[in-house]
Design goal:
Blueprint: H1 10-21, H2 38-46, H3 48-51, H4 56-67, H5 72-76, H6 84-91, H7 100-112, E1 120-121, E2 125-138, E3 147-150, E4 156-168, E5 176-177, E6 181-183
Antiparallel strand pairs: 1-2, 2-4, 3-4, 4-5, 4-6
Amino acid sequence: MAQTAAPLEIPELIQILRQQLHELPDERKPVNNTTYQVEDAVMAAFSIFFTQSASFLDHQRLMKSNKGKDNAESLFSIEKIPCDNQIRNLLDPVPAATIFMAFQKAYEWLNKNGVLKKFLYLESEILIALDGTEYFSSKKINCPHCNYRNHRNGTTTYFHGCVTPIVVSPNQKQVINLEPEFIKKQDGHQKLSL
């Protein structure tokens, strides 16, 4: 998502994100005592881009102890903050592609409100930085969609990866995250041994 807006614009971007996430699938069996909503888990995960803290819950606890209040509800509209494990449990079953429209809507909003103009380089160009990352890696756990590396010692590492495009500018400290592209295992493609 975007990290470019002035503080007054952030609530509008948060509202756009919330609208896109409202109908995310919830794989849990319906029960009356559901404590955390999937939407709140996504917002807590998303918030690390704003707080620069690996754990939103820890950041909010620290803020509350230092300042007497936190911004989970006021900024992100999170009613109850799930812990990191609860966030993973809620979000692991949600297909990543279900949130891609949120990237597109945020980008459209940034364009419409002139924020992208601040990122233009050489008067009319937008610079995109690409970074490849692995977001899952295991020598034991794998699925049919995993890529893999065969090592010389006979072990195999299974992984999922993606390419993350980011709008950058030498004139801006902030960046704009675009929709990631997942690296898919190709049929018939033999991996090299390491």
